[in-house]
Amino acid sequence: MAHTENSKTALVTGANRGIGFEIARQLAAQGFHVLAGVRSREKAVTASEDFEKVGVTVTPVVLNLADSGRLSAALSELELTSPPIDVLVNNAAILIDGPGGFSSSFFDMTDDIFERTWETNVLGAAVTMRALIPGMLTRGYGRVVNMSSLAGQLANMGSGYPAYRVSKAALNALTRVVAAEAGASGVDVKVNACSPGWVRTAMGGGAAPRSPEEGAETAIWLAMLDSAGPNGGFFQDKEQQPW
């Protein structure tokens, strides 16, 4: 869908497949100019074709969240070359299978798996927020959606996939800190986190009960909140969850 002068611009990271693809597709269908963050030029080409197949036009941008050192420069360049970014959806994340991965014990977790998970799931989101929210605050409008998980919920924390759990708990903490700063600014910038539930994706697997469309629903809602909407919350199915 062509965007108009008045349409908003959204950046969705990890947008070439799964929930991120569906969030980008739905925002584009709503009239947003969507920047679809992907990890490589090859994925950018494939993503363009995949979005065209489902009837929307997006602009792929190469952002490797696993390389936080270069990510800041890439985002600075993006701000110079794209319309102002009104909506940021931090969707890109990894869950590494292996020691410290999906089913193993914390005591089997390797430093490498912990570091790789932390860099993408936490540092990547921190860098994007630090780069893009100042512009939102200056312009007086912004929506940030951090794609978290009930796996990072301290209220019901248990064992299993320790690196992923810790990273999502940290992302929730980042959400609270940044939302408090945004809220203190007095302008209409909102920062929230959400859990998509267990979704049929490469990460969630084929046995998951939810479709990517269902997994994207709460993120779309948070991306399009009006000025009376929540700030600094954690949601699943549009309902607030305990941290």
Residue-averaged pLDDT: 91
The coarse overall form would be globular
Order of helices and strands: EHEHEHEHEHEHEE
The largest pleated sheet is described as: 8 strands, mixed
> What is the CATH topology classification name?
Rossmann fold
CATH class: Alpha Beta
Helicity range? 40-55%
Instruction: Provide the number of structural domains.
Output: 1
**Largest beta sheet: strand ordering:** 3-2-1-4-5-6-7-8
From the alpha carbons, calculate the radius of gyration and give it in angstroms: 17 Å
Work out the number of β strands: 8
Tell me what the CATH architecture is: 3-Layer(aba) Sandwich
| Separation of the first and last Cα atoms | 37 Å
The proportion of residues in beta strands is: 15-25%
The number of helical runs is 6
The CATH superfamily bears the name: NAD(P)-binding Rossmann-like Domain
Derived from helix and strand composition plus strand pairing, the structural class reads: alpha/beta
Protein name: Short-chain dehydrogenase
Pfam families: adh_short
Family: Belongs to the short-chain dehydrogenases/reductases (SDR) family.
Keywords: NADP, Oxidoreductase
